[in-house]
Amino acid sequence: MKVFDIKDHNVFITPETLSIEIFKNIFTKDKSKDKTYANDAITFIYHTSDSNSPYADHSLEEKDARVIEEVLVDKKFKVTKEIDEARSIYKRLVLSPLERLLESTKNSIQDITDYLNEKTIDPDELKTKLDMMSKFSKFINEYQGLEKTVKKEKEATKGRVRGDVDIEDRYNS
After folding, report:
1. Are 73 and 40 in contact (CB under 8 A)?
2. What is the rounded end-to-end Cα distance, in angstroms, of the chain?
3. Cβ(101)–Cβ(143) under 8 Å?
4. Beta-carbon count within 10 A of 94 CB
5. SS3 string of the chain?
6. Which of 65-69, 100-104, 162-166 has the highest mean pLDDT?
7. I want to staple 43 with a disulfide (CB 3.0 to 4.6 A). Which of 11, 38, 65, 85 is the partner?
8. What are the phi and psi torsion angles at 11 (to 5°)?
9. Which residues, in sequence order, are CB contacts of 116 under 8 Å at separation 6+?
10. Measured between alpha carbons, how far is 69 from 129 in angstroms, rounded to an integer?
11. Is the pLDDT of residue 11 over 80?
């Protein structure tokens, strides 16, 4: 499902996404003519959640601050509970299980970096995270192989109609 579109360097919400209550609420609450808050909210959600965003490799805290400072119109934009919930829903809709796993792994790497820079996490916790990351790398390789196999199978079974046109699954386009 395509949740947002990017056109002319702007993030737009698709009509299908407006059928999801939390996204609809963000837009209906904004009574301004130009929908500045709603547009900032959607842009914020995209840039802090999507693996294709230029901010994808930043830490969680850094993403929020940089997107507000560098991208949004309202530099005093506040991340509300509703925005966090919409961000979680967006991630569930657009990120594959592998992408969610990689995001969690990146967050663990950031925790380790913080520990090495500031020594803020417990050494036992650090050992646990390093052990988990070692196991993740093996798991990710296996998962990627399986994901490629599933994609090949989908391609092989994709339907065709008269005129040699592909039948697309409307939820995977």
Report:
1. yes
2. 6
3. yes
4. 17
5. CCCEEEECCEEEECCCHHHCHHHHHHHHHCCCCCCHHHHHHHHHHHHHHCCCCCCCCCCHHHHHHHHHHHCCCCCCCCCCHHHHHHHHHHHHHHCCHHHHHHHHHHHHHHHHHHHHHHCCCCHHHHHHHHHHHHHHHHHHHHHHHHHHHHHHHHHHHCCEECCCEECCCCCCC
6. 65-69
7. 11
8. -95, 130
9. none
10. 31
11. yes
| CA dist., res. 27 & res. 37, Å (int) | 8
- φ/ψ of 67, rounded to 5, equals -65, -45
Residue entry with tokens 């093996």: 138
Cα 57 to Cα 62: distance, rounded to the nearest angstrom: 10
């530099």: which residue's tokens? 75
44, burial (CB in 10 Å: exposed 0-12, middle 13-18, buried 19+) = buried
pLDDT tens-digit series, residues 32-85: 999 999 999 999 999 999 888 899 888 878 899 999 999 999 999 999 999 999
Cα 48 to chain centroid distance, Å, stands at 7
Q: Can you name the residues that pair with 160 across neighbouring β-strands?
A: 166
